[in-house]
Task: structure prediction
Amino acid sequence: MKRNSIALAVAGAVFALGAGSALAAPDWSKVPKKDLHVFHAGVTPIEWLQGKGEHSGAAGLKKGETCAGCHIEDGKLSLDLKRLASKELEPKGAPKTMTFPVTVQAAYDANNLYVRLTFKAPAGGADHSDKDNELKATVMFPNDKVPLGDQAGCWAACHKDARTMPGASESKTKYATPGAMDLMQWKSGGGGKAVDGTVTDKRAMDGGKAGVTAEGAKSGDIWTVTFTRKLAGGVNLVAGKAVPFGVAVHADNAGGRFHHVSFGQTIGLGVDGDVKAAKQ
Ligand code: HEC
Result:
């Protein structure tokens, strides 16, 4: 008898916890959707983008223009994808599908930011070096000390000497010195795993302070990945502000630079942004 009542009490507590977190999670059917077009970027590290004579946008970048400002028109990419798939910018081989849409939704409350990504991940990749994970979905947030962080998004951490770049050392990862980025990732291997990481003078796939949790699932050929992170913690996200972010998807067991990436965009926490986060 006594045992039973303890078991009931424990079950009740677990139920209450479950109900609590279900209440905190946004009702995604009510949250507006925005499509970001991710693409295979070839070998276009920040040094290439800033190099005059290689990239016509270099002067604009110096003046403070954003990548998205020049390369997104009416929500569509304005980019020469054939050039990105050519030997000039992709010596190893490009994926069959150079770009695909990722539907982004965001919401926030007093403590957390919630981000949901929904997309079809294309097969036909050129690199399958991550044998453990069919899929990885990543979101990064630069702080205001990352050079070009708010203009270039993830490219601010993408350097020509980072691993999987032609001729680079395998041990050198992406970096964002003297700033920092939060990196949250969900990877599909082993039933799914969340990563709470950072990019500073190197990339760390743990030790982040954003309390990241993530869930992912595939239904038919559609992946849905949902992240929860603290507003304060790591890169401080503040309600009433638009925060820069970027998205990357490693599809078809891709590793290293063989991801599809978005341009730097913003999430508006209660204010305008490329993606508008709904207040819970
Ligand atoms: C002032 C406008 C401008 C800005 C800002 C700009 N670009 Fe460009 N970008 C261009 C133009 C024009 C081209 C095509 C011709 C060339 O590269 O010389 C180009 C080419 C590219 C290419 C090669 C594919 C192609 O279409 O030729 C990539 C990749 C690229 N830009 C990415 C970026 C990224 C990432 C950023 C931000 C870090 C950025 N650009 C900022 C104007 C811009």
About this structure: Residues 11-23 have pLDDT under 50 and may be disordered. The radius of gyration is 20 Å. Residues 41, 44, 49, 55-57, 60-61, 65, 67, 70-71, 79-80, 83-84, 152, 155 surround heme C (CB under 6 Å). Residues 134 and 253 are 4 Å apart (CA to CA).
